[in-house]
Amino acid sequence: MARSALLNVMVQAAFKAGKSLSRDFGEVQNLQVSLKGPGDYVSQADRKAEKLIREELLKARPTYGFLGEESEEIKGTDGAHRWIVDPLDGTTNFLHGIPCFASSIALERNGEIVAAVVLNPATDELYTAEKGGGAFLNDRRLRVAARKELSDSVVSCGVPHLGRGNHGKFLVELRHVMGEVAGVRRTGAASLDLGYVAAGRFDGMWERDLSAWDIAAGILLIREAGGFVTDLEGGNAMLETGTLVAGNEYIRKALSDVVHRPVPTR
């Protein structure tokens, strides 16, 4: 597969962060047995990975803006371009020694995502996409799953944790979805959930309370794999609303309809 110069910069930045995260992940697994635990160490690993990515990207394009989870936003002088970065998506997994985490990098041009990279260094899986150029897992072209019925589908979701999200609302949505699908899954990293939809591993996904850096890259991966992504109201404001529903043409609509069912009266 041919990559543009910009996508190559993004891939190089992801691998540099991934190498650092892999070293730190090995240490985290050792720290699991300690009473104190690896919490502070993981926070440092997260910030270090973002610093590596930011330096690599801004070295290549110093006028671009930069929005990352761990640092203040850099507006940039370019005005049209912005990097959107989650250096360690799946922090809780990383913290517990679960090898399901990723670095996510997206390039936004005039409000539209035009390039995307998601790397899970624990599995050596690299997802890439460019607008109009398709989506790939390593060197394999991706297509979303072709299933048309929710009853045949495995879908992914985000589960709100302690102190975050509307737990009651989620439980109602989950109750509705569980009754319609073959299975519900949660990886603990939204960027990988979206990559799995692009790869046809999951048929669909819905989630609330997301940040732009959680989903920017994954949105393009799914669209370039032939899928559809909207916010939960059917619009294109995923980065602003923090809501998302995705799948092929049929599953995205069916899943959205189920999620929007009213609260049962009994």
From TrEMBL:
Its cofactor is Mg(2+). Keywords: Hydrolase, Magnesium, Metal-binding. It is an enzyme of class 3 (hydrolase). Its EC number is 3.1.3.25. One of its GO terms (biological process) is inositol metabolic process. It comes from the Bacteria. Mg(2+) binds at E69, D86, L88, D89, D214. Signal peptide: none annotated. The keyword Transcription regulation does not apply. PROSITE patterns: IMP_1 (PS00629), IMP_2 (PS00630). It catalyses: a myo-inositol phosphate + H2O = myo-inositol + phosphate. GO terms for molecular function: inositol monophosphate 1-phosphatase activity; metal ion binding. Pfam families: Inositol_P. InterPro entries: IMPase, Inositol_monoP_metal-BS, Inositol_monophosphatase-like, Inositol_monophosphatase_CS, Inositol_monophosphatase_SuhB. Belongs to the inositol monophosphatase superfamily. PANTHER family: INOSITOL MONOPHOSPHATASE, INOSITOL-1-MONOPHOSPHATASE-RELATED. This is Inositol-1-monophosphatase. It comes from Mycoplana azooxidifex. The lineage of its organism: Bacteria, Pseudomonadati, Pseudomonadota, Alphaproteobacteria, Hyphomicrobiales.
